[in-house]
């Protein structure tokens, strides 16, 4: 150890600035090599070395040595040997400063706070930069109480919080979902004579955009301008991107023009964002005009620009326009050969011409034409979407054969395809094969497979993958935690899901509304409504009402499942009184709850309230009421049915299943089989539920069980409803064959059925 200290003395010049940047010198590397004995005596000797280095004004090296020792011996021994044994005798400010910074660097926040308290006891004044790093660490750990104590001490004892401290705190609270606290700090800092800068505004603007409150974000931009703070390109980029994602391209374009009037000129990324918005809105002509404007203003397009334009032409425009674009790019030499090849193959993929794209890729490789990973990824993603996993892996093998390293996106796309087709074990094996080969694996890849395990109900497999993720040194992010929480909640393991939620927040990760809603739904499904309400109140503090209307619906559904319609209605009234009226889902949940409680009068009143509110009923509304009238008294059922028919009720597969099931339950299996046969002749596609109903009907006919010969008013009424449903489907199918592509109609109807069933 003495030799190591001698090396340090000979190779370093004094440095009095503890905040200046530095690189670890060679002698420090030698010290790390020498420090292999971690016994208590050697650790105490190292602490003496730190004192000597500080006294010789080698304060940066002292901090490096101290940090290294703490990392090597661990938190428990560091607290005992480095701090607790020396606390009372440590009076030197620079020693305390080195201790505070070192404990912060290794994440020992509680020790850093103790050192800070000791520093103030001996009359020292901590540096602003050290406190800023400590605040960042505390916010990451979720220790908001210590953050506020630090802030109060700074205000009263110094150093006065700087703009950097305020921005760090606002950013930390916004990331935790506490935008209102961030706003409060914005106004507090002005009272203490610290004016917000462009970064302060941008933090709040971004926070509102992330939570879907884009108009609120735009109000902050106007406040920023009115306050004399000039917005940056990042300010406008954030808001324009948010409006484009919401599909509000008109407002995005207004802001795009406004920023130029203010002297902020858009860069390539901003042009690409607006162009992508136009393409997604299927405004290909406007996207092309924007591209021409981009060139006139001397802004250089990049590969992303051409991908956006080509994708737009092939997906929503004309293929020949896409081909013309690629030819023009080639002639004008606006993009490198590699990028042009990538865009060409991507264009064929977007047009659905996958085999052509694969053939072109092979030909290019044979001729030595350069290709990047982007071209391979385009094909892999396209084959994956079509469910052609073998073809996707063929492309992957060609990529590896020609010496290209797969990107994280490549791996994620392959895993997504395997998981989508239920090949979870293959996906799990692929992850570890890629890790062994040194290919990049993203957190998203693990999350994709994790979600696949949960969809199969394999909780043990999901837990094993989670453990494996941590073993390979990949810290789960908020998305991975949310997927785990959702899977556990849906699997009925809500307590375990809540433990994971606490672990997530303990690591400083901010739960999104998906994580909250998953937990709230899990508590509701298990009958633990008090816990669900507590979470809803916690969520309300950090999210805008438009984000948690789904949460309200989940809670209302929980009460309805418990037949507690009074509290369900009270909660719906609370939602309305908060300024956010119930949506069609809110009404559907309550109507279903009243129908299950056999309170048809109240269900009909709720239906009337829905109509009066100007909300259009959907297929779930109609099917819920149709199912209810099948069990209601005949007179009221006929009146309600008449109202539904007048409102142009559109029956679907769910309606058909409801009526077939009720016909059978009324003792009419022969009519059930007859109507099913007539529907087949249209033809009309059945699902698994239909076939289960028909199996029971055929069984009743064979065994002569539950069959009635008596014709009742209710059976005639059900038969009439079945006739009306059949007649509509039959006439609609004839019309569709005459007017539209039958494949397109089938796809649209199937998606409607799935949506109705999922609700």
Describe this structure in words.
- PPR repeats lie at residues 92-126, 162-196, 197-231, 232-266, 267-301, 337-371, 372-406, 407-441, 477-511, 512-542, 548-582, 583-617.
- This protein is an all-alpha fold and 759 residues long.
- 75% of the residues lie in helices and 0% in strands.
- It is built from 42 helices and no strands.
- Helix 6 (93-105) runs parallel beside helix 8 (128-141), helix 26 (443-455) packs parallel to helix 28 and helix 31 (529-540) packs antiparallel against helix 32 (545-561).
Output the structural class: mainly alpha
Largest sheet: none
Q: What's the total count of β strands?
A: 0
Rg from alpha-carbon coordinates? 33 Å
Task: Describe the secondary structure blueprint for this structure.
Blueprint lengths: L1 H10 L14 H9 L5 H16 L3 H15 L1 H10 L8 H13 L3 H13 L6 H14 L2 H14 L5 H13 L3 H13 L6 H13 L3 H13 L6 H14 L2 H13 L6 H13 L3 H13 L6 H14 L2 H14 L4 H14 L3 H13 L6 H13 L3 H13 L6 H13 L3 H13 L6 H13 L3 H13 L6 H13 L3 H13 L6 H13 L3 H12 L4 H17 L3 H13 L6 H13 L3 H13 L6 H11 L4 H13 L6 H13 L3 H13 L6 H16 L9 H27 L2 H17 L1
Helix pairs in contact: 1-2, 3-4, 4-5, 4-6, 6-7, 6-8, 8-9, 8-10, 10-11, 10-12, 11-12, 12-13, 12-14, 13-14, 14-15, 14-16, 16-17, 16-18, 17-18, 18-19, 18-20, 19-20, 20-21, 20-22, 21-22, 22-23, 22-24, 23-24, 24-25, 24-26, 25-26, 26-27, 26-28, 28-29, 28-30, 29-30, 30-31, 30-32, 31-32, 32-33, ...
